[in-house]
Design goal:
The protein has four domains: 9-145 and 156-230 and 507-537, Sandwich (Immunoglobulin-like), CATH 2.60.40; 242-264 and 393-488, Sandwich (Immunoglobulin-like); 273-377, 3-Layer(aba) Sandwich (Rossmann fold), CATH 3.40.50.410; 596-704, no CATH class. It is built from 15 helices and 33 strands. The protein has an eight-stranded mixed β-sheet with strand order 5-4-9-2-1-13-16-15. Helix 2 packs antiparallel against helix 3 (339-350), helix 2 packs parallel to helix 14 and helix 13 (642-657) crosses helix 15 (684-694). Pfam families: VIT, VWA_3. This is von Willebrand factor A domain-containing protein 5A.
């Protein structure tokens, strides 16, 4: 859709306040009607689904108009009535179909009028595997696959214009202030930032801003690194004075954060149940990019599935689902990972086709999660594969020690296990009378780690300061809403009533509520026909209507089921590269990407056994480019299992020939190294030196450096 009329949205200004693990955001959208007729501006935009939107207001001619949160149908009716009477009206709702998409309507904006719309929200920051806290400001709204019978009221039915980046008529600015008692080591971003400015000598406070000229070609990401993040913490927040003292918003709330520093564990020691969910819809028959020699989506997916199957630890349980309009699974229930079951799965993967029709993912997901769990093998969704191959904290429990007359009731769902690299946040309501004098409470965190019973005790003050934004209360309310709010098509009447009550009381938006504000103070109602103006979004590869999702770990990208696979994979490869020449990397990775993983690399990986080893045979030496007789003769440990020599050769060859795609095979490498330590530990240095000489390599991989 091309734009032929002026766009009323002129700029977006974001103020970000990050305190430890929580972000408070204020986003102002500035509108101006440059036309000669009144307009209704409609802006559909993405936002993290964990965001708790609690405020929506308009600034018109210096006057602040604060919106009220109401039941959605009631708010919609009020908006339409105001529009018909010529009043200015403002409406904000969460999409009926997608929790991470919102629509903002500015109705009856007269010619020449200016208005600033501000929405405020809070959210927990995502924890990355390297300990960084991640904030994302979504700037790209990607197309979604929609279930036709459920999406009649979706924001995606609005025909949103798409324009080239250079023609986008509005700008984005962002200033971020970061505070943490742990000390701020650095702030990184995928976008250009101003140099970090420390506001305190001890580096507990800092500020950065988005450089001018952001092109809306990507989501804005910040990675914040603190000096110490593993210490458990408890934060208490007083409730609203005008609320009942025993209510959700009237009683004090507490947030417990637990991020244990767990040791690495060998892959062979890991357990778990892993379920792989693969898109086999018809759209997977298309090429990965517009280049004719690039792979088909389905072939790339099969390669990735092979890599993941080879990366699983012995003794775990697994299953593979394929979905489209219907779904199929390899085994009636998850099976134990052995050489036999792995070989059967690999054989079936090779025969998979993109022949299941549409892209209906909900039904197989429901089937996966409703099944009984296997004792001692917690179900892993696929995105946590690397987490699950490491240590986990089990049998987690929480107990409170507080002054007489004060108790805690949990607001968060029970969670009994967390893996290395994961964090646990728990919300609780404090019931009873808070002590008047200086006093403290204590939380005891008990858990099991590698068979040992451990505990952490955290003392916290019971004289907390009042937070004007009531961040903890609203995050707790959002947590409760997410547990109960399954959307209008799935939520029971009882749960819907609970969601409405929590949403209205806390002021946090839900799928059953909406913000509405009406400005009746105009000298006269707006006259004349109203022109609808849908705010355009930028044209990027990721919102071109091409094919269904697929990334190197078979996950959907963050803000839409449709993503440009080349962008996703190339960016991930570049993130794992240590080269400083990004342009050279991009050209190199494009070549690797379009041809798929090297055939020899895939062939080598396909020869790996379920336990992580390779056999010394002609198939292996053909890939290595050596003869079987010469390879056997070069083995410095002829009295030992020749699989150890073969495995060392395979790992060194991978580093020499497949280093550009190391991020894809590092898990199966870990399994191979773990097998070597179990079966040839004392001989590893000798085998590695001999393999280096035999393969004529100049460097020994870090994984073998003592």
């Amino acid at each position: 859709t091309l734009i032929s009329s002026p766009v009323p949205l002129k700029s977006i200004s974001v103020t970000l306040s990050i305190n430890d693990f929580v972000a408070g955001v204020s986003a102002t959208l500035n509108y101006e009607n440059e036309e000669e007729v009144p307009v209704e501006a409609i802006f559909v935009f993405p936002m993290d689904e964990d965001s708790a939107i609690y405020s929506f207001e308009a600034l018109v001619d210096g006057k602040k108009i604060v919106a009220e949160l109401q039941e959605k149908m009631q708010a919609q009716s009020k908006y339409e009535d105001a529009m018909s009477q010529g009043h200015q009206a403002y409406f904000l709702e969460e999409d009926d179909y997608s929790r991470d998409v919102f629509s903002c309507n500015i109705g009856n904006l007269p010619p020449g009028a200016k208005v600033g719309i501000t929405l405020r929200y809070v959210q927990e920051l995502t924890l990355e595997t390297d300990g960084a806290l991640r904030y994302v400001l979504p700037a790209i709204l990607n197309p979604r696959y929609q279930l036709s019978e459920q999406s009649t009221n979706s924001c995606f039915n609005i025909k949103t214009p798409i324009v080239p980046l250079e023609d986008l008529p509005y700008t984005l600015s962002m200033v971020a202030t970061i505070t943490s008692q742990h000390g701020i080591e650095s702030v990184q971003s995928n976008c250009s930032l101003s140099p970090i400015q420390y506001l305190a000598d001890d580096k507990t406070s800092a500020q950065v801003s988005l450089a001018e000229g952001h092109k809306f070609d990507r989501d804005v990401e910040l990675l914040i690194y603190y000096s110490e993040v593993h210490s458990p913490s408890v934060a208490v927040e007083m409730g609203m004075q005008d609320m009942k003292p025993d209510s959700l918003m009237g009683a004090p709330s507490a947030m417990v954060s637990f991020y244990p520093d767990l040791p690495e564990v060998k892959g062979s020691r890991a357990c778990g149940e892993f379920v792989f969910l693969m898109d086999r819809s018809g759209s997977m028959k298309f090429h990965l990019s517009y280049q004719n020699d690039s792979q088909l989506h389905i072939e790339a997916a099969k390669e990735t599935l092979l890599l993941l199957l080879k990366s699983l630890p012995m003794g775990c349980y697994f299953n593979i689902y394929g979905f489209g309009s219907s779904y199929e699974k390899f085994f009636p229930e998850s099976v134990k990972y052995t050489q036999k079951t792995m070989e059967e799965a690999v054989k079936r993967v090779k025969d998979l086709e993109a022949d299941l029709g549409g892209t209906e993912i909900l039904t197989p997901l429901l089937n996966i999660y409703k099944g009984p769990s296997i004792p001692g093998h917690p179900l892993q969704a696929l995105g946590s594969l690397k987490f699950a191959l490491n240590c986990s904290v089990d049998d987690f429990s929480l107990s409170w020690d507080m002054p007489p007359g004060l108790s805690a009731s949990m607001l968060s769902p029970e969670q009994t296990a967390i893996c290395k690299g994961q964090r646990l946040i728990i919300y609780a309501q404090l019931n009873g009378t808070m002590p008047q004098e200086e006093s403290s409470g204590e939380v005891c965190l008990k858990y099991t780690l590698q068979g040992r019973s451990l505990e952490n005790r955290v003392t916290f003050s019971l004289q907390p300061k009042t937070n004007a934004s009531f961040i903890i209360h609203r995050l707790a309310a959002k947590s409760l809403i997410q547990m109960k709010d399954l959307g209008s098509h799935k939520t029971s009447d009882g749960e819907k009533e609970d969601v409405l009550n929590i949403s209205i009381q806390s002021g946090v938006l839900s799928s059953f509520t909406a913000f509405i504000a009406v400005n009746k103070d105009l000298n006269q109602p707006v006259q004349g026909p109203l022109a609808p103006r849908v705010i355009p979004r930028p044209m990027t590869f990721s919102n071109l209507p091409i094919t269904c999702p697929y990334s190197t770990d078979l996950e959907f990208n963050s803000y839409g089921s449709f993503g440009h696979i080349e962008d996703i994979v190339l960016m991930r490869m570049m993130e794992n590269s240590k080269s400083s020449t990004k342009k050279t990397n991009l050209q190199k990775y494009r070549k690797v990407f379009h041809k798929g993983f090297g055939k020899k690399v895939l062939c080598l990986i396909s020869l790996q056994k379920a336990n992580g080893s390779w056999e010394l045979d002609k198939d292996l030496t053909k890939i290595l480019g050596t003869g079987l007789k010469d390879t056997k003769a070069a083995n410095p440990a002829k009295d030992q299992d020749p699989s150890a020599w073969a495995t060392v050769l395979a790992v060194l060859w991978l580093h020499a020939k497949g280093k550009d795609v190391k991020c894809e095979w590092e898990l199966l490498e870990s399994k191979a190294v773990a097998w070597l330590h179990d079966h040839a530990d004392s001989s590893i240095p000798m085998l590695v030196q001999a393999a280096k000489s035999f393969l004529k390599l100049s460097v020994i991989p870090d994984v073998f450096v003592v």
